[in-house]
Amino acid sequence: GIEAQSAVVTTIFSDIIAFLITEKEQQEAIEHIDEVQNEIDRLNEQASEEILKVEQKYNKLRQPFFQKRSELIAKIPNFWVTTFVNHPQVSALLGEEDEEALHYLTRVEVTEFEDIKSGYRIDFYFDENPYFENKVLSKEFHLNESGDPSSKSTEIKWKSGKDLTKRSSQTQNKAGKKRQHEEPESFFTWFTDHSDAGADELGEVIKDDIWPNPLQYYLVPDMDDEEAEGEDDDDEEGLEDIDEEGDEDDGEEDEDDGDDGEVCPR
Which of 146, 214, 222, 223 has the most CB atoms within 10 Å of its CB? Predict the structure, then answer.
């Protein structure tokens, strides 16, 4: 009895001691993990600072080449509207009249602010056109010290009856709810929309995807032309098959004529 009880107490006491030791080891491990994590975070911050310096250096080195590219692009009519129409995400935002207006777009420039992480600006240069008075439309994206995004843009001076943003809204209202989901808002609505700068996908697409190499989208083959060529090839193959069948039929007829001549007696 007493020995058994003593053994149980000893076992319980041993378990408590083991638990306390394990708890202490875990707490020490957590403290060490926190120390190591602080070192990792410090290195990450250091890496970000050094990467930023490298990006700033190469941004400056790239500028003369961006300028030269813009001069060469200016020699190609409708380069930018073709590039935007060929880009799947941008084309989804373009209505027919947007495309017409973008035929007057002669130049696009993306400028990252000197410290890069605080934001960037996109400038669109236009020839004289029937839609608006502006020669340049710009949109800027800013990130303040606390990381809150914001944007601002040029006010578009629409010519009388040519406001594509209003026309897009009226078209959607007349077309009803079903049509509203199919009809894209005007591309130019993007200039005046500052409701959620942090979720502005179009700005990011132009800066990070199109601007580094617009030629890759300008040279995307027109799918309608490819389909038309495919249909022409199919038609030609069909004609070849018909000709081959005709030749085979002629050959069989000749053989039949030859057999008849041999069978007939004199």
Answer: 214
